[in-house]
Amino acid sequence: MSSRVANFIASTGDHTLDALADFGRFFKFTGQTLRWLLHASGSARTWQLVLAESMDVGVRSLPVILITGSFVGMVLAVQAIEQFRAVGLEEQMGGVVNLSVVRELGPVLAGVMIAGRIGGSLTAELGTMNVTEQIDALRSMGTDPIRFLVVPRFLACFLLTPVLTLYCDVMGSLGGWLVTVVMSGVDSGPYWEYTRSAVSAFDVFSGVAKSFAFGGVLSLVSCYKGFHCRAGAEGVGRACTDAFVASFVAILVMDFFISVLLQSISTRIWGFRSLL
Amino acid sequence: MSILKTMTDPREQTRPAIHTPNSEPAMIELRNVYKRFGSLRVLAGVSLALEKGKTTVVIGESGTGKSVLLKHIILLLRPDRGEVFFNGKRIDDLPESDLAVHRQRFGFLFQMSALFDSLTVGENVGFPLTEHTNKSKEEIETIVAEKLRMVGLEGLQPKRPAQISGGQKKRVALARAIALEPDVVLYDEPTTGLDPVRSDVINELILKLQRELGVTSVVVTHDMTSAYKVGDRIVMLERGKIIADGPPEFFKTTDDPRIRRFVDGRASPEDLAALED
User: Fold this and answer.
1) Nearest Cβ partner for A137 among B96, B97, B114
2) Has residue A238 been placed in a domain?
3) What is the distance in angstroms between the Cα of A200 and the nearest Cα belonging to chain B?
4) pLDDT tens sequence across A13-66
5) Which residues in chain A have Cβ-Cβ distances shorter than 8 Å to B110?
6) First vs last Cα of chain A: how many Å apart?
7) Using alpha carbons only, what angle is made at residue B194 by residues B143 and B231, rounded to the nearest 5 degrees?
């Protein structure tokens, strides 16, 4: 029995050390990326590569983001409309739906969708490059793989996630409008009037600020997992799963802390704002 | 033949020794290099000096550390212990940014070719030129065509790596490896996975590059036909140590059972016993 306990403690210790070492490697990888970002962001070659990545990250992600955004708004409105009608506040639906979409659901769901679509593809691509020695080939030719592979992907995700989030917000708002106004018969005027009074420029800024962070972290996590995946198809598959799970968790954790920070800034500047 | 001294008493290999076939100054030198991955010891005190303009072939069974040794020459892997010198200057302690400059003097042919899937053949061959020179697009295209002509693949520029055969991939990778006209070309199992005819094409190419460009070459292989054909010198690794070092003639005539077994492709009694279990 005592040897079982000892084995359990040893195994827990090993896993903890591995996790800490992995965490350390990730931060080192992030540091190297940021260092190369400073050096390489002024070069035309880097922006050529960013442009090539932007097609995949931005344009090809747009349909799924538009669909996600519209259904988020619609579901939110479907869930809330009866409750609001019961207390006679259905005209205020616009404020609640749009504030939720702009501050929380738009950025988080756009981030998660991009983590799934782009993050998975980044990990699979870089993981395959890793196991087929293409990353070593870059190094052997005197090219830093982080500068060539990670920096353009990081920039594309960092810059385009907020743009995609804004598209998601607009579609969420229209989805909410569709259910509230067209399907439930609430007047369109008050819907938008309450939206304008509830959603401030700071709320939009808050959502966009979060999405910059989400885009940055999901690209770093995905690239890191690709660079450090194990050999073989199983290794690449595992890295893709790990990248999505880690990105998802990171997005939710960052969302909490950024929300707390922005909320305290908002309250300090404008005081408490009641929606109803 | 001082190089054969290593054959007389294998126990002497535990001592660090620089293997120099003659008094020529070494272009690349590994001194007492050790490498371990976790609990697996891969290199156990390898010392080797490589002569300028010659082709050295490294042979040995799978898993004896041949590719790891090759990656130490260009510092894709760093030694746990020991030193690596290039033209008399120690390079294993240089930061990655300085090594990047050094690596431009090397060409590396990877076992699986390692062509970039997202680029065309032409872009693959021109990649080092795009990255490290200020040449115009037209100049790069001219050089790419010249390098592809050297490997017998002119006109293949617009194809993607997925659209060409394994042998063609190796030749494209070779064209890429020599795009910057390196001083040293490292070949990691260049004939593995190819039929005997394609293997011979690669061997002829290695000889042609040495003849025409005067490069120093290191070839890792377990293909003895290839080793005899391209090698000025053959080094044999076993369990992370050099156990033999000499000209191809030595490997053809030696009676040492460990070398004969490998050269003739005969399984050891232990290998066969494992099959009977």
Assistant:
1) B114
2) yes
3) 44
4) 988 998 899 899 999 999 999 999 998 888 888 899 999 999 889 999 999 999
5) 133, 136-137, 140
6) 61
7) 75
